[in-house]
Amino acid sequence: MSNAVPQTERAWTVGTAPGIFPSIGHSIALFRRPLDFLNSLPARGDLVEVRLGPLRAWMACHPEVAHQVLMDPRTFDKGGPLYNRLRPLMGNGLVTCGKDTHRRQRRLLQPDFRPSRVADHTDMLGRQAELTCRDWRAGDQVDVSAATMALTTRVMNHVLFSDSLGAAAAAEVGDRLAVIVRGLFVRTAVPVDALFRVPTPANLRYRRAVARVHAIVGEVVAERRRRGPDDDRDDVLETLLAAARDGSSEVTEQEVHDQLVTLLLAGAESTALCLASAFDLLARHPEAERRLHAEVDAVTAGRRRPGHDALPRLTYTRCVVAETLRHRPPGWLFTRVTTRETTLAGHRLPLGTTVLYSPYLLHHDPASFPEPERFLPERWLRERATADPRGAMQPFAAGSRKCIGDTFAMAEATLALATIAGRWRLRHLPGYAERLRPAATLGPRSLVMTCQPRAHAPAGSTPRARSLAPRATAAARVQDPRTAGDNGVDDA
């Protein structure tokens, strides 16, 4: 006779968000106060019905429910209002493609983003970060949002095109991207196509921005094709063109274009917002900033910027990046569509149902992250961090559709933060008040701060500086945004 205790199935709760208006649903609340609206949903249930215009959708409010969605891409495929809007912009690239082509696409691009490849880029990342703050002067008022966008666009220009994108074109991409992300959110919250076919100034700006980004990428690809296969470049563009020349790879000329647009936009925007948010948050949390500075001074030991050997030892700096991604994830709201009838949180969903999940909502779940509104990088130190069985930390998604550039993005943000913070302390202007207005991504878009030069402490001169560095190797194994989910494609 078995003495096993029978396991009871969890009693999930299903509800409906209040305040549905005819025709527009919850679009007003989602557009005017999106973060407050999201935070109100868990009180309604683990799975909550919302209306995006006339579209009925379901928000996964519990981390385990969201994790089920992410780990079953065959049932919950890329789709819904967000991806319906992204596809005219990104085509059928890695971010927007369906499950039928994802595995092939990911296997093609994965070698360019493996950890060993990221290591090859560390010196370049440091140089680009150094260039960002090279001309700053004490007392300057710096547009941090613009500076970080310029930095990440230059980085993606190098990785994708071997710097073939000229300085003027790279700057224009950043400007056009700001227009695009604002327009994308409106089109997601109110998925009514007729509204966006009207030639209003905003709609025309959006269309021109999309067309111009495609034209810029097309010009770079055309120039590389004219040079031919003998033009030896070690970049993503060459990976794609080589695959297109190989008739057995199924890579078309259009896919080459789509993948480059996808990686350029996704790679530049998210990391730029993460960095701008980090400087914003550090300026309001002096103890975290002090610990960051102590570590950077100890690790760099008077060098102009962190070298290739510094990344594993920037333990607390990486914790600051991780906590920024938790507190203010750039990708804050996503949609999926069911490919078959299924059950989620005990509720039957028919084929074609739109399901939403929000990293912002999951990251502010007090059951997963006590005091979720507090900015606490120490959460991610090895002696403080714990396993996350609820799957709540999802800045890069999870499973086979996890962001292909997660390791690269963490390295880029960590090195950039260390390089700039090693030289400058950034301060808010008098009267500054946080005004987060999410668009397709979340983060400060016009953050202006004042530069204060730092007096570098000699390496190891303070007890705090000594105490941080020795934990670096061990802390690299902590469950954090780098390791949540799976980078592989075997289960795709």
Keywords:
alpha+beta; 492 residues; three-stranded antiparallel β-sheet; six-stranded mixed β-sheet; 48% helix
Kindly summarize this structure in a few lines.
With 492 residues, this protein is α+β, with helices and mostly antiparallel strands.
What's the helix and strand layout?
Elements: E1 14-16, H1 27-32, H2 34-40, E2 47-52, E3 55-60, H3 63-71, E4 76-78, H4 81-90, H5 99-109, H6 115-120, H7 122-133, E5 141-143, H8 144-161, H9 167-189, H10 193-197, H11 201-227, H12 236-245, H13 253-283, H14 286-300, H15 315-327, E6 334-338, E7 342-344, E8 347-349, E9 354-357, H16 359-363, H17 406-421, E10 424-428, E11 448-453, H18 463-468, H19 472-475
Parallel strand pairs: 1-2, 3-9
Antiparallel strand pairs: 2-3, 4-6, 5-11, 6-9, 7-8, 10-11
Helix pairs in contact: 4-9, 7-8, 7-17, 8-9, 8-13, 9-11, 11-13, 12-13, 13-15, 13-17, 14-15, 15-17
